[in-house]
Amino acid sequence: MESKDWVLLISLAAIWGSAFMFIKISAVEFGPILLVTLRLLIAGLVFVPLLLKKQNRLQFKPYLSSILIIAVVSNALPFTLFAFASLGATSNMLGILNGTTAFLTTFIAYFWLKEFISSKQIVGLFLGFIGVVILVNPANGSSTILASMCALVGSLCYAFNGNYLQKYHQNSNKIVLIGWSMLFGGLLMLPLAVFNLPNQMPNFNSFLALLWLAVVSTGIGYLAYVRLLDRIGAVKTSTLTYLLPVFSIIWGAIFLNENITLIIFGGFMFVMMGMYFANSVKKPKNLN
Fold first, then answer.
1. Is the pTM of this model over 0.85?
2. Where are the alpha helices (DSSP H) in 141-220?
3. What pLDDT, on a 0 to 100 scale, did the predictor assign at position 284?
4. Contact 248, 96 (CB under 8 A)
5. Confidence of residue 115 (pLDDT cuts 50, 70, 90)
6. What is the CA radius of gyration of the chain?
7. Helix, strand or coil for residue 274?
8. What is the distance, to the nearest Å, from the Cα of residue 109 to the centroid of all Cα atoms in its chain?
9. Three-class DSSP labels, 40-60
10. Which of these, 106, 134, 76, 92, lies nearest to 263 by C-alpha position?
11. Any bridge partners for residue 89, and if so which?
12. How far, CA to CA in Å, does 29 sit from each of 33, 57, 146, 154?
């Protein structure tokens, strides 16, 4: 990897790691439904100039069914689940639970794609499971059981999407798939958003958080992700998986004064070890 690839990789990890903090800030004011709707629509607009290019326009119709699947499974549903989870969990908890995507992907790949699971990966699944049990413990005041479950189901959606892409779209045009799935995800959420408007206008900080979340973390972030895939490949890009929880903890501690309790630290270490062993061989990757 060249130095500019390392800079892009670490920068993207820092940006995506901050997403949980901005979800935490904006979800209370906008409400989870409206927040996700605006996030997807605004992020989709970032892709519009690329989607309108002739070579990309021609691939819209053949990809339409897959775009709709990804719009729901990888965007609307998990984004909404994490937004609801933010109402009952700290941002660092959201980041750590999002890290379970790594070994959930391995678990699904074994049953769906019939991929071989090594002994190291089995160890990773076991360690990751212990980490989840520690984190969702009722004694952990950093998250409610419901919030933890929402985050875990959201991570399961990402894991399913990673396997779906591995099975059907390993060499497909990711710009077309991601860009249109964001726009369609937002449009699918729009009818729900109309009936879930906030009682009062969100404050200025919430609007700033939404703009960062939509434009930088989601729109520009996914463009950077596609560039990394093209430049260094999926395996090296997967190291993002290890960095996201780290940055979510750092940003939460610095900007939201979130405490790193012994339970959080213990669960984090088990999840990180589980991620390491679960990624011991090449496997499908999720898009967040």
1. yes
2. 145-168, 174-194, 204-211
3. 45
4. yes
5. confident
6. 18
7. helix
8. 18
9. HHHHHHHHHHHHCCHHHHCCH
10. 134
11. 143
12. 11, 37, 20, 21
8-60 per-position pLDDT tens digit: 999 999 999 999 999 999 999 999 999 999 999 999 999 999 999 999 999 99
Chain centre to alpha carbon of residue 101: 9
Structure tokens at 150: 């929402």
Token output for 91: 């941002």
Q: Which residue has the tokens 């990789």?
A: 9
Region label for 70, one of left (φ > 0), alpha (ψ between -120 and 50) or beta (otherwise)? alpha
Tokens representing residue 175 in the block: 């710009």
pLDDT, position 75: 97
279 by DSSP, 3-state: which?
Answer: coil
Do 148 and 284 contact (CB within 8 A), yes or no?
no
Mean pLDDT of the 255-274 span = 91
Residue 89, classed as helix, strand or coil, is strand
pLDDT in tens, 168-223: 988 899 999 999 999 999 999 999 999 999 999 999 999 999 999 999 999 999 99
**Which tokens sit at 196?**
């879930």
> Shortest CA distance to 245 belongs to which of 18, 61, 53, 39?
18
In this structure, how many other beta carbons lie within 10 angstroms of the beta carbon of residue 42? 18
Band (235; pLDDT cuts 50, 70, 90): low
Q: What is the pLDDT of residue 281?
A: 58
Residue where the block lists tokens 């160890």: 123
User: Positive or negative, the Cα torsion across 135, 136, 142, 143?
Assistant: positive
Q: Read off the tokens for 71.
A: 């719009």
**Residue 6, both tokens:** 């390392």
- Distance of alpha carbon 249 from alpha carbon 252, whole angstroms: 5
Distance of alpha carbon 41 from alpha carbon 57, whole angstroms: 18
